[in-house]
Amino acid sequence: MGQELLKPRESDVRPLAKPQRPPRFVYLACGLFSAHQASLFGLYAFLAPELGVSLPQLIGAFAFGSFLFLFGQPYWAYKGLVWSRERAILIGQLGQLLSLLALIFLPNIRAHVSPQAMLIFVFASRLVYGLTASAIIPSAQSLLAESSREGEYMRSMTAQSIALNMGRVLGPVSVLILAPWAPAAVLPVYAVLLLACIALAPKTGAKSKVEESSSGGFHLNHLLPDGGAARWIFALALFLTTYVALIQSSLGAAMEIFWGMNPQEVAKEVALLTIIGGLITVAVQTYLRKRIKDPRKGVLMFAGGAAMLASAVVMQNLNQYWQLLLGIIFMALGIAVLVPSYLTAMNLHYAGKSSQAAGNLGVAQTLGFALGGAISALALSHAVHLPFILALLVAVLMCGAVLPIRLLRSPQKGRHL
């Protein structure tokens, strides 16, 4: 577990410089990443027959690519210590573009290869995606943290979260607009947008401030938090993403069974709820961005936990549509508060070690999304109400992780908690 994988050379180590404003393309890269990802979720039913694979096979291929983020995100967070953060983001976007082009062109060869070969090609495209696109978010997070003074972490992390949530809004919007008349046009649109974003990327970037080199570079034990409050911040990120994935994965089945919706109606309603939740999250985060410096102080994180708990309680009974809508609103409020809060708290914990903060949270979030989806699949096989009961338990655990984060906050500025 402690085997060294990447170690910056002495020549790569540079003294700390005055924080500089990050390039705008960082926010564009984050927004485009999440928009592209969200749009693909709405195109599963279209892509599967186009690619000549079954829907479960397609979902499995995409899950495989997402699982690779578990190791890819921490690796790329540390790779930026040797290369520039901008270069790591650019590599991630190039890999994202390559995997997207594969999905666009693979249908053209479907008639000339076997179904087994098509499945291998689809998995290969997601392999490229998982190994490269996993660089975008942790590298952007590290760059934003390194471009901020300690008191500005919350502002920077909230800005990144806003960019990601705007993408999660625009992704479903693009599907709702284009899919009814030209679903095949969605992927080329994102390919063009990716090319434009890559063209805007800085041609060169300065190497990162590698005060982290004293840790000896990237070790496998950097995948997990070092102890203290970092464990609780890790747990909060894990529980929140588990909750979100659990609810998102279970909504479709609930709508079909409770209200008798067909798959097309379900897809439309899920997209609309995603847009509503995303807009609420962006609005709240825009308000909070310049008003909070340290989320570990005050009641902000408790309010976020309470909102998630309220969301779970409301969704215990989904007889009426307004109950579902209210639950989504509470969830959006909780996400708006807790995501930038745990991003900021982890960067404050690892003062000057943005790569380890990004790596830890990348692992927590990847595990959370995978765990939430798995719990949903198992629970739905027993009862349609069971995922929402388990979501309530996860929400309670989430609230339980908030208090230790505040209690274990270091009294010394910039030191480990």
Helix content: 55-70%
- How far apart the termini lie comes to 24 Å
The low-confidence parts are 1-18, 210-216, 410-417
Number of helices: 15
Q: Got a strand count?
A: 2
- Across the major sheet, the strand order is 1-2
Strand-residue proportion: under 5%
State mean pLDDT (0 to 100 scale).
Answer: 82
- Overall form: globular
Decide which structural class fits the backbone. Answer: mainly alpha
Quaternary state of the chains? single chain
Q: SSE order in H/E notation?
A: EHHHHHHHHHEHHHHHH
Key features of this structure:
417 residues, 70% helix, 2 strands, disordered C terminus, mainly alpha
Notes on the protein architecture:
- With 417 residues, the protein is mainly α.
- The protein has 15 helices and two strands.
- The protein has helices at residues 25-41, 44-51, 55-67, 69-79, 85-105, 115-132, 136-146, 153-178, 186-200, 229-259, 263-288, 300-314, 321-349, 354-380, 386-407; strands spanning 4-6, 218-219.
- A two-stranded antiparallel sheet has the order 1-2.
- Helix 12 packs antiparallel against helix 13.
- The model is unreliable at 1-18, 210-216 and 410-417 (pLDDT under 50).
Short structural description:
This protein has 417 residues and is mainly alpha-helical. Helix content is 70%, strand content 1%.
